[in-house]
Automatic annotation (TrEMBL):
Protein name: Uncharacterized protein
Keywords: Membrane, Transmembrane, Transmembrane helix
The keyword Transmembrane helix is annotated on this UniProt entry: yes
Parts of the chain that traverse the membrane: 18-40, 52-80, 92-115
Top-rank lineage group of the source organism: Archaea
Length: 126
């Protein structure tokens, strides 16, 4: 039995979803990193990726709350940015808006080059 004999292995749905998750997390990290660097002048790319991950988790946990879930999720997401970067609530919200704008541009550029299956994980509304 040869390990690489025959036709090449096809990626399954789990493999595809892992790639989309990782790519979407990296896009969210880029958006937060660019925004935080511009607004706060602080942070490494790895910090932004973790911020995107924590923000996505906070959003997922709170968005389903009836009536006020969207508002709670948004406040929690800005709170994650505030927690991860040395800024107050106002600058954290500005980082959030800037991250959304950057993510929108990055996703549009990726769509133009044929990569339209990604989102910006950790950046709501993209």
């Amino acid at each position: 039995m040869e390990l690489f004999a025959g036709t090449p292995a096809q990626a399954g749905p789990i493999d595809d979803s892992v790639v989309v998750f990782a790519g979407s997390l990296l896009v969210g990290g880029v958006a937060i990193h660019v925004a935080a660097s511009y607004v706060a002048g602080a942070g490494e790319y790895g910090d932004a990726v973790l911020t995107a991950l924590f923000g996505a988790i906070a959003w997922a946990l709170l968005d389903g709350v009836p009536l006020v879930g969207g508002l709670l999720a948004l406040v929690a997401w800005v709170g994650v940015i505030k927690w991860r970067y040395p800024v107050g609530w106002t600058r954290a919200a500005i980082i959030g808006v800037a991250a959304w704008a950057v993510a929108t541009v990055v996703l549009a550029a990726l769509t133009l080059v044929g990569v339209g299956s990604l989102d910006a994980l950790g950046v709501p509304g993209t």
